Structure formats: C-alpha cells, structure tokens
Amino acid sequence: MVGIALYIVFFLTVVSIYAIIVMGLNLQWGYTGLFNAGVVGFFAIGAYGTAILSGPDNVRLIGGFELPYFIGVIGGILIAAAAGLIVALATLKLREEYLAIATFGISISIQLVALNFASLTGGANGLVGLPRPFYQFFTEPSVYSVFFLCLVLVFAAVVYVALERAVRSPWGRVLRAIREDVTAARSLGKNPTMIRLQSFVLGSAIMGLAGGLYVGFIGFVSPIDFLPILTFQIWAMLIVGGSGNNRGAVLGCLIVWGLWTASGYVISNLVPPGFQSRAGALQAMLIGSVIVLTLLFRPRGLIGEEDVISTHAGASATPALQADAAEKG
Amino acid sequence: MSAHILQIANLTAGYQPGLPIIRDVSMHVSKGEMVTIIGPNGAGKSTLIKAVAGLLNVEDGRVELSGSDITRISTHKMADAALAYVPQTDNIFASLTVDENLKLGAQALPKATARERVEEAYEKFPDLRKFSRRKAGVLSGGQRQMLAVGRALLTHPEIVMLDEPSAGLSPKMVDDVFAQLVALVKSGVAILMVEQNAKAAMRISDRTYVLAEGRNRLDGASDALLEDPQVTQIYLGRAGRKQ
Predict the structure, then answer these.
(1) Is B97 close to A316, i.e. CB distance below 8 A?
(2) Model pTM score
C-alpha cells in the first residue's frame, strides 16, 4: 500500500514537472501560434544549466560550481531563456512548418552537445551526485518525496497563475491577435516580431524551470532523459488537453502521462522480456492514436480555448449584455 | 510642406527587391476626401496600398503623411503616425471577441480614453454592440468590415486606407459598408480605398485614380471618370499601354 502511495507521489511529481513544460509550450503555441518542435532542447538546457551550476566540484569537468540549488535553477532558467532568445532571433521570421523543422533540428543539436561535450555535460554518463533541495532536513526518503511533490506543485501553481494573468492581460490579447493574423496585428500598431520573441523566450524559460526541477527530483542528469520522444509526448499532452487553455494543458499532461505509464506497466508485465523493447513502440502508437482520436472528435482538445479570455474585455461589454438581456425580455 | 494629408510621389515598390510591381506611381489625398483606386486585376492596386502601409519593399519614391516622410516606417508604427490600414481579408481576429478586437485597436491609448473610444465605435456601428462578447468569427462579412473599420478608427487617424472593403460581400452589405464610409468622410476622416467594385466605389468617392500594369493611367473627379470610355478600355486592356 505504501509502495502504491509512493508510486503515486512519483507519478504526480513527474506530471507536475511535465505540466510546467506543457504550459510553456501552451504560451508559445496555444496563445502565440509558435510551432516549437524542440521543446526537449530547452528542458535539457534548464536541467544541464542547473546541474552544472549547482553540481559538485569535479576536476574532470568544467562545471560543478557548487552553487545553492535554487541559484542553479535560476541560472538554468536564464540560460534556457538566453537559448530561446538566440533561437528566436534566428528562426521567428520563418513560417510555421519551417519554424518547427528549425527548432526540432536545434533540439537534436542540443542533445548531441549533451552527449559529446563530455567535459561540460559528463557525456553519456551525465552528471551525478546533484543536490536535492532541503534533502538534508529529511531522514525518511518517502517523506522527502512527498515534500518534493509539494515543492513542484507550488512552482507549477505559480507558473499557472502567472500565465493565466499574462494571457488575460492586454499583452495576452496581442499574443492571440498575432497568432490569428500577423498583418492585421501589425496594422493595429503591434510589433509581432517583438511580441513573438517575448513569448518564445518566456516559454523557453518556463521549460528551463521544469528542467531545473527535474534535476532536483532525480539527482542526476544524462542525455537519455532528453530524447525527441519527450517533445512528442509534450505536444500530445497539449493537443489532448486543449491548446490555448492552461487547465487543458495540465489535464492533458495528467491523461497522456497516465496512459504512457499504464501502458508501460502493462507491457512490462504481460510481454515476454525478449520482446519488451519492441513492444515499447506500442506506447508511442497508443499516444499517436489518442492524438488522432482527439483531433477527430474534439479538435480543440478536452478543454479547448475559452470563448472570452481577456478579463479586460468586460467593461464596455456590459451595456451590450444588458441590450442582449433586454432583447431576450 | 505638402497641402495634402497623404502624398505619394513616384513610388516604385514590389514584393521582392529588383522586381517592382508598381512603378513611378503618384497620388494624393486631402483632408475629408474619399479617393478610390481602381484598375484591372494585376494593376498593382493592393500592392500600392501595402507599400504605403509599410508592408512591402519600397525601391524608390516618397510617401508623406501631413508633410512628414513615412516612406519606410514599419507598419506597426503607422498607427502612431495617424494612418490606419485595413487589410483586404482576415482583417479581424476571429477567435477573439468583438470587444477584444476593438480593445486591441485602442490598447496604446490611456485606459479611460480607450474605453471612450470603444464606446464611440459601438455608437458608430451599433450592430457590433449586440455581438460584443461573441467571437468575431460569428460576424457576417459586412459586420466584419464594420469591425475592422471601427477598430481602425479608435486611434482617431487622419486617414484610413482600405483594401477592397466590399470583397466577398453581398450587394446589400456593400451598400451598408459604403454608407458607413460616406458617413466617416463627412466626419472629417480621409479615406483612400482600393476597390474592384469600381462603379459603386466611384459613385461615393470624390476622386479616382486608375492604375494599369503598375502605373498611373487616369485620374480625376469620380463623376467625370464614371462617364469616361477610357476607363472601360483600360479594364479591357486596350488603351492602358498607350496612355
């Protein structure tokens, strides 16, 4: 029973970390229409940034600055934001599909750097012995797991509330206008390049935060954690939950990661050991099928974009609603 | 200083450097005047208006707004320069509400002023008020044009440039939209519009420019040009090259 409870804690911690990434992607794609197919790259940069800054000193490595964990996380966020800025400056003028190809290529490059720049990243072995926040205050690992889940939930809640405020502000309104039609937005005095840049960098920083939390969660980092399949999973979460809605992003994360985990459990218990690696492909097929079914039956996702998002839209609409009400008698 | 609100002098522009679509085009618009640009397909009408709006590469020539050079100003800075541009299609944000669409146009203004201006737009275009909390995508073609024009007016521009405001509208809606444009001009706003619906546009405008193959062909009072057989000939592609 305790084992199941601990597994649920583990599962929810992963979901919460991934939910942060999905919310970052939702800002970029759901609200701004930026097709970032390199999500995992920014997640990896945040993770490695945190690991290099806060990891233990090692004579064979460039990093290992032994900074406090949260300084490492902030550093990881800033490095991911800087990477987002560089990528955005290079790619944001590209059309949707080309932006996707470019960002996908960049994320593969990031993973290859993680794999081959061994003196910085530890290569295939990764970086180990990384600090876990407040770990020294706990004697029971299980209690620490619960604490860490709470910590990640707090970060996820802060990201959620901040993004909700942002997308409901006039700035959020401009994001959606740019997503809809760049020329029309430009004709209204908006600078789409600047706004898209802001959205891309902020989204990348949020993914970097998730990377930093992931490092604190597992205590090591290696290239195997940042395979392109994760980008696919994150996109699946957003599509299933409903892009353009942060609640949808979180729900999609819970459902898709739940399906992924459950299918993994079934495969590991029912499929003979010799076939398990091949049967793992069924998981990707399952998620692919869920995406197809979602697009067929609920193209806007389980919780699609709200009809009225801007909280500032209410003021002058009031007379109109009154007129509506009067009409209806 | 130019006496006109908008002065376009010898403008050469296109979509790619070295491949101009319009060549050496000149025209002007005065305060409270409605000017229409007509011409056969491919004449460069929309290209001209996009070039003036800063969306295209200007190779040569000059555009002045109330005497100030705006030739190479970015489109997003045009709104500050008292010039509003309404694109031909997709000129509203369908997934945003009507109210959000209007507020986007007033976002740069102080809050209280923005609120007043949005209210002004509702008064000018009462149909929009009924749909204020609904997504703009549910509006009819005519209402969409009203929304696009209403939004463009929020910053109180001196001149509004419209790219084919009657495109895709039923004859009844065209009449409604044109009636609103006439009312706007009466309120002192100048209008420069590109129109395929040549006769209907000429009937409501003060002056007309006829473009063909990217160059000025004819211009004058709209009433006079309506009767001018050369206009028909240009549309049929005969007189254009020799003029």
Answers:
(1) no
(2) 0.84
